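**Backbone geometry record:**
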Amino acid sequence: MIKNIIARRYSVALINAFQPDEFKTLENEVDNFIKFLRDNVEIEEFLISPVAENKFKIEIISKLAEGLKICEKFNNFLIILVDKDRIYFLKDICREIINQIHQKLNIYDFQLLTAHSIDSETIKKINNFVNHYVSGEVRLKHSIDKRIKGGFLVYNKNLAINASIKNSLSNFKREF
């Protein structure tokens, strides 16, 4: 899809402007920026609006950069997105920036699904289990899905581990 191509190209271009020891700082800035836009939907809508003039978008971005303590490189990058009429893809580009940073730092983001809430000790055990399949830091984002019934499902775009009771029963049923 075109938005994925655009997001990947722009995110790679931004990351190439940073040194590896600056990646964590950039990740925090992008994450804070995303959270701010999530909490202030009207500002995001204004920034991606095709009707709003670019000079006002740039003014808003500059004010946000100052308030959120965004570095000059990231601020300039956001202005380029406005100038090149790519600001519409802002959320996708920001998500891809974080994905690219995580790839460079060997951080693996996984979605963890369970039928019920689980304690931190269980999450730690699942994290250690997933660590056997990847070489790097594992980060789990936990959600509850009643369809799991029991056990867990851990996945990202490259790997899925289905340790759910439903899956185990299906496999058992197929054997007979």
Q: What stands out?
A: Helices lie at 2-15, 23-39, 41-48, 54-68, 72-83, 90-104, 120-131, 165-175. The chain is about 60% helix and 15% strand. The beta strands are 107-114, 137-144, 151-155, 160-164.
